[in-house]
Amino acid sequence: MTSSILPLSADTYQVHPIHATERIWTETNCYVDVWIEVLHSLRLDPLAAAAFTLSTDFEGDQWTFFKYPPEDLRRAYGIDVHEMNPWRGVLQHVTEQLRLGRFLTMETNSYYLPDTAGVSYQIDAVKSTIVPNLVDVEKRRLGYFHNAGYFELEGTDFDGVFGVGEGSGSAALPPYVEIIRMERMTQRSHDETTEIALGLLADHIAQRPRDNPVARMAERIATDVAWLQANSLEAFHLWAFGTLRQCGASSQMAAAFCRWLAERTGGCPELTEAAAHWDALAGSAKSLQFVLARVARGRNAEFGSTLASMAQDWDLAQAMSARAVGL
Fold first, then answer.
1. Hey, how many other C-beta atoms are within 10 angstroms of the C-beta on 92?
2. Which of 46, 53, 139, 300, CA to CA, is 20 to 30 A from 252?
3. Where are the domains of the chain?
4. What is the mean pLDDT of residues 30-43?
5. Measuring CA to CA, how many Å separate 27 from each of 15, 18, 242, 271?
């Protein structure tokens, strides 16, 4: 028996324009990317609730692993998201909730996700978040949102994703699971969506860091260089994902949000200028990642000026974004 919500096919699925266009950072993180595609498939605009990217911060040893806040999803779309206890086993819960018209987000092992071929599929155990849309228990088939798309898998990969059959293990901990309730989901009008987005922007401007997080990250990077040079290339990639990629990807999404909102508010010049600075910050973060990869291998390279430019772009982007909502 098949349980599903949306009539999708991996062969014909069309990704959201955010994922279809050339971008500085092709992906953000597994959680935000999967939500972009889920919202897109529900005919909702993922950018309407993207103001949260403006309040990300440097956490001392990494940039915020940014996610759509549940309260923003409820406010923008009427969607309710909260943690679920998978006490019966995640497959049973996914199957039942799909029949009730609800998605679940679930953590799983990318080792069993064919869409990660060449990166982690059948190579390495890497935690990631998927949203199942179709489950056929008898045929062991799964249709799922992951990263920047919609995919399908079957057989032993199905067993591994859900920890059943050959993929079961008595020592495995249950995954983190969220239920996505859509009973109150609303397709809002253009004007209502714009007003909500402006309100979310004002809220997140009010919650932004009180000092410049890029400047703080720069100080940490200077002290991390010796550690990076003493460790493996794999350690560098983990470090870069938690620092420069999250900083750059969140800035890129902030730019997309500001451009989107500028277009809906008659070409607001402050938002247009803010978007340009967010884009510049995102591009500098990407360039810096390549420079620091060389530094990590023991080569000499100057990077302080790039970090200073990134910090200035953060200040200017925040100032323009705040001015757009009268703050």
1. 14
2. 300
3. 2-43+80-181, 190-324
4. 97
5. 13, 9, 13, 23
